[in-house]
Write a structure and sequence with these properties.
The chain folds into three domains: 1-36; 52-96; 109-223, 2-Layer Sandwich (Nucleotidyltransferase, domain 5). Strand 1 (129-139) and strand 2 (142-151) form a beta hairpin. It has helices at 2-9, 15-22, 26-34, 39-57, 64-73, 80-89, 168-182, 203-206, and strands at 129-139, 142-151, 157-163, 191-194. The two termini are 62 Å apart. Helix 4 crosses helix 5 and helix 5 (64-73) crosses helix 6. It has 223 residues and is α+β, with helices and mostly antiparallel strands. The protein is rod-shaped. It holds the Pfam family HTH_21. InterPro entries: HTH-like_dom (IPR025948), Integrase_cat-core (IPR001584), RNaseH-like_sf (IPR012337), RNaseH_sf (IPR036397), Transpos_IS3 (IPR048020), Transposase_IS3/IS150/IS904 (IPR050900). One of its GO terms (molecular function) is nucleic acid binding. This is HTH-like domain-containing protein.
């Protein structure tokens, strides 16, 4: 900063006088004129370009922590604070989310069936009681909703479904997969407990004839 001030005002004042007032040596000023960027500034420029390249290769989603790991893999001796500072100055930022987040977005309430399971989770045989739940997974294309059906006796996944929206069909397809895999041959073969209501008018017409008796214990509503 002092050298830059001297260069900007050397037409008004003597260089040696300004160097004396600012307590710098005039030889250092003339050396700086030949190479205005300090060694640290040159290193900043070089590493900023490496950070920009690593960020672009990540699809412009990496933050300073992962960018630090990438630079260290290239043999750079650099700390997270320095990467964060250089990335901020260069306008490089991590992708932290998506426009649409999971949640309720309206829709008519579903029809809730009676809870017949009543939290009795001790089962003596397979395909007597199934439980299910829905979770969501963050991907680069948005949220993926996953519904899984588990047999309480064996603790195995007997059905699942994944879709881009949390609808009745998501839970229904997981249940139908479980029914078909279990090859149920008579009605009333098992009980089904879901934390989401999936019963709607017309659903019974879609299910195969050998479907187990389904019961639901909902805690929230589907759109």
């Amino acid at each position: 900063m002092k050298y830059a001030f001297i260069r900007a005002h050397r037409e008004e004042f003597g260089v040696r006088a300004m160097c004396r007032v600012l307590r710098v040596h005039f030889s250092g000023f003339y050396a700086w004129l030949k190479n205005p960027l300090s060694q640290r500034a040159q290193e900043d420029v070089r590493q900023t370009e490496l950070i920009r390249q690593a960020w672009a290769e990540s699809g412009r989603v990496y933050g300073y922590r992962k960018l630090t790991d990438d630079l260290r893999d290239q043999g750079e001796r650099i700390f997270e604070n320095r990467v964060a500072r250089l990335a901020s100055l260069a306008g490089i930022a991590a992708q932290v989310g998506y426009k649409r987040r999971p949640g309720r977005y309206g829709g008519k309430p579903a029809i809730v069936a009676e809870n017949r399971l009543e939290q009795r989770f001790e089962v003596a045989a397979p395909d007597q009681v199934w439980v299910t739940d829905i979770t969501y997974i963050k991907t680069h294309e948005g949220w993926l909703y996953l519904c899984v059906v588990i047999d309480l006796f064996s603790r195995r996944v007997v059905g699942w479904s994944a879709q881009s929206r949390m609808t009745t069909d998501l839970a229904l397809q997981a249940l139908l997969m479980a029914v078909w895999r279990a090859k149920a041959k008579r009605a009333g073969h098992g009980a089904f407990r879901s934390r989401l209501p999936i019963h709607e008018p017309g659903v019974a017409d879609v299910s195969p004839p050998a479907q187990p008796r389904t019961q639901h214990e909902p805690t929230r509503q589907l759109p």
